[in-house]
């Protein structure tokens, strides 16, 4: 690989799923922030803003692409496997968003294609204090997933930008297929990264216009907020915006 080539990443639509599991197995999970995004936490704790946005207080929520790494830095495979057998990590995990929505009253299902991430996420979720709503991560491919119930709310953060750009229209189609066809249904997108080189990723650059092109037939924005500099994620730079879409 030349110095200017993008980092090795699962970008081939036919083979990229194996690439994600390899990232998990290698513990190459540089995207992990160690917690839910602060802007999402702040929003969900604000009853006035969530009422304006029409966030449901019950029903089913869905978080695609939410597996759990064991540690935030690379570990050799044998140590990583040992950690999987041992007590769950409490410091670095990615059942966070599943846990967060469940603590706001929604029965929440996470989905990840990488089995390693799913096992660890469920261990972590089980280790957390009791919640009133269900929280579970299932293993599966977002593009083939058949839920028992259609969802009242879907949350996308660093999932769309992780997909090969050629799959974006399929992502938008699936968002409509997986959600209830009702005006009370919400899609929460933490848009990221809203700048950068469109050819290098993941994360692959997105634009607000592209979100509207992808979602505009089925969804319209009811609430949005650009994320200020001091609240942005760590790691690869990119502007961010939290947006809530209602099903038309
Ligand atoms: C960049 S990570 C983002 C994780 C999490 N959303 C976060 O904010 O930290 C993308 C995740 O999507 C998962 N993934 C990729 N393609 C998928 C697919 N088709 N179905 C389900 N999960 C997928 C990967 O295994 C990986 O865990």
UniProtKB/TrEMBL annotation:
<feature type="region of interest" description="Disordered">
    <location>
        <begin position="227"/>
        <end position="248"/>
    </location>
</feature>
<dbReference type="Pfam" id="PF05724">
    <property type="entry name" value="TPMT"/>
</dbReference>
<keyword id="KW-0808">Transferase</keyword>
<keyword id="KW-0489">Methyltransferase</keyword>
<dbReference type="GO" id="GO:0008757">
    <property type="term" value="F:S-adenosylmethionine-dependent methyltransferase activity"/>
</dbReference>
<dbReference type="InterPro" id="IPR008854">
    <property type="entry name" value="TPMT"/>
</dbReference>
<dbReference type="InterPro" id="IPR029063">
    <property type="entry name" value="SAM-dependent_MTases_sf"/>
</dbReference>
<protein>
    <recommendedName>
        <fullName>Thiopurine S-methyltransferase</fullName>
    </recommendedName>
</protein>
<keyword id="KW-0597">Phosphoprotein</keyword>
<keyword id="KW-0949">S-adenosyl-L-methionine</keyword>
<dbReference type="GO" id="GO:0032259">
    <property type="term" value="P:methylation"/>
</dbReference>
């Amino acid at each position: 690989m030349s110095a200017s080539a993008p980092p090795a990443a699962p970008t081939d639509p036919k083979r990229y799923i194996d690439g994600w599991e390899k990232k998990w197995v290698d513990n190459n999970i540089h995207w992990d922030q160690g917690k839910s995004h602060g802007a999402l936490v702040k929003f969900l704790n604000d009853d006035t803003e969530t009422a304006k946005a029409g966030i449901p207080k019950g029903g089913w929520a869905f978080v695609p692409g939410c597996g759990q790494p064991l540690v935030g830095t690379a570990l050799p495979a044998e140590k990583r496997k040992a950690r999987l057998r041992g007590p769950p990590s409490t410091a670095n995990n990615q059942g966070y968003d599943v846990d967060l929505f469940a603590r706001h009253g929604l029965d929440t299902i996470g989905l990840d294609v990488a089995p390693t991430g799913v096992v660890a996420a469920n261990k972590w979720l089980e280790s957390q204090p009791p919640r009133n709503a269900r929280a579970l991560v299932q293993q599966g491919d977002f593009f083939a997933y058949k839920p028992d119930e259609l969802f009242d709310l879907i949350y996308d953060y660093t999932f769309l930008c992780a997909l090969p750009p050629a799959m974006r229209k399929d992502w938008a189609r699936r968002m409509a297929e997986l959600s209830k066809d009702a005006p009370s249904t919400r899609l929460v997108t933490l848009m990221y990264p809203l700048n950068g080189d469109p050819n290098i990723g993941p994360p692959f650059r997105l634009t607000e216009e592209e979100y509207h092109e992808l979602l505009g037939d089925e969804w319209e924005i009811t609430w949005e907020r650009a994320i200020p500099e001091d609240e942005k994620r760590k790691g690869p730079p990119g502007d961010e915006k939290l947006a809530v879409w209602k099903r038309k």
